[in-house]
Amino acid sequence: MNKICLLIVIIFFTGCSSSKNIAEKNNVNLVELENSAESAYMAGHLDMAEGLYRKLLKNKDNYAPAWFRLGNIYTRSGRLDAGVSAYQRCLQLDQQHTKAWYNLAITRMRQSTDILIEAQKHVDPNSKAKKQMDDLFLELMRLQTGQSKAGT
């Protein structure tokens, strides 16, 4: 009976030890995955970085820095709606992520600019609305390019 109890204890501790090793290995793999994603991102290989960040998020969905990077990737590649979603997810996880707030605002301005460009195709060129849209468009462009107002 004592031998059976001893065997059960040994099996139990062996199982705990191997579970710990698997968890440590997964953490190392996630660190390696994040490092690879960051290297690809910094090198400008956005397609590769996107795939690696998405893979990282499959294992660690609540990791705000990866959502932030995905937001940058989507926005840089013209997928503004996806960029907004990624920045918002980042901010759900970390409301103090100031760069995500800033990039979200910039992306929303780009979306507004795109809307105004599309509206130009459908608005009477002599209308008051057209003039207002033109003024708003110019102001958004000024903000996005960092130019100051004339005379200031």
TrEMBL record:
<keyword id="KW-0677">Repeat</keyword>
<keyword id="KW-0802">TPR repeat</keyword>
<dbReference type="InterPro" id="IPR011990">
    <property type="entry name" value="TPR-like_helical_dom_sf"/>
</dbReference>
<protein>
    <submittedName>
        <fullName>Uncharacterized protein</fullName>
    </submittedName>
</protein>
<dbReference type="Pfam" id="PF00515">
    <property type="entry name" value="TPR_1"/>
</dbReference>
<dbReference type="InterPro" id="IPR019734">
    <property type="entry name" value="TPR_rpt"/>
</dbReference>
<feature type="repeat" description="TPR">
    <location>
        <begin position="64"/>
        <end position="97"/>
    </location>
</feature>
<dbReference type="InterPro" id="IPR044244">
    <property type="entry name" value="TTC27/Emw1"/>
</dbReference>
